[in-house]
Amino acid sequence: MKIIKNTKNTVFEGCDFVLKFDTDRKIKLLQLTDMQIIDATQRREPDRLRIDEINAWRPENFDALCGDQIRSLVAQTSPDMIFITGDVTYGSFDDNGQTLVYICKLMDSFKIPWAVTFGNHDNESEMGVAWQCEQFEKSEYCLFKRGSVTGNSNFSVGIAVGEELVRVLHMVDSNGCGAGTDESITKKRGIYSDQIELIKANTSAIKKAQCKNVKAFMACHIPVDLFIKAEIANGYRNAEREFYTLGVDVSAQKGDFGCKYERHDRTMIATDENFLDALKKCNVDGFFVGHCHKNNTCIEYEGIKWIYGLKTGQYDYHNVGQLGGTLVTLEGDGFTVQHVPALALCAAYPGKAPMFNGLFAEDKYIIE
Prior knowledge:
Blueprint: E1 2-4, E2 17-21, E3 27-32, H1 51-56, H2 62-77, E4 81-85, H3 98-109, E5 114-117, H4 129-138, E6 142-143, E7 155-161, E8 164-171, H5 193-210, E9 216-219, H6 226-233, E10 244-245, E11 259-260, H7 275-281, E12 284-289, E13 298-301, E14 304-308, E15 324-331, E16 334-341
Parallel strand pairs: 2-7, 3-4, 4-5, 5-6, 8-9, 9-12, 12-14
Antiparallel strand pairs: 1-2, 3-15, 7-8, 10-11, 13-14, 15-16
């Protein structure tokens, strides 16, 4: 595999980066999301955390709580690329930036291309957004571009076999860092019109350069309102049922899977009413998000799979026993999605039930 970082005036026009494979084979992408690493020693107020959280979330526990889970996921899946859908760190607990530096070194240690977009907590750090972008940009294996539209992480990664693009991954900043003070942050959550226009322009450039339409994924942090429409349209959510496990509490349609244990109405992005049409015109058939730590459904609606990635790492709230990553396997024009549990042993969430060694638990206990 070859990483191409200069695509201007090439057959890969419209992509900021391209992963070029010599032979046609299954290509594996690993989604990580919401590690939301907390360094308790950097808390801004003495009473910001409970005593058990202070003891558990010390920097020396990072590997046990998150790093070893990431290592286990990479070992299990052997991905060709890793993409992270936001909240790598809890920025207000990383004012010296050392947590972000550490995670960049960890990700580079795998010698696998990795891409990342910001969540609503990353940019809270007093180090500032420009510094954070610089850390990603100078990491050897990181594919990252700040971009010039709304937000600070908008770019596209192409996946090619020879000179033919087989898939494009649009990484998008969903904004909404309300607790940040950096003037470059757009605090109101949303995928803004200039971001959508950028994806449209890239799609047109790709079609012109490739002489065909190329299937695409979109990945951001905060889910759009179409995730709600998807669950309602498929009959999973109604007036009597808001939380569920597909295939257990309600029959799953078209291979849908996962569970929803978190209300997300208040977190929805107010996108343009024609957003769905824009996605279809840009050949998007998979939309990946994070943000809601207790949701990990994959639901098909309007020809698009709407996917909550499985939360990675034990920091902050989550479903007990449901931690890991999400494996996306490309084959031809199609793809499959599978959640992968982290196998690394980890301690209990402070004050709560044990983590069942990272495996999916039969117990339906939900952390509130």
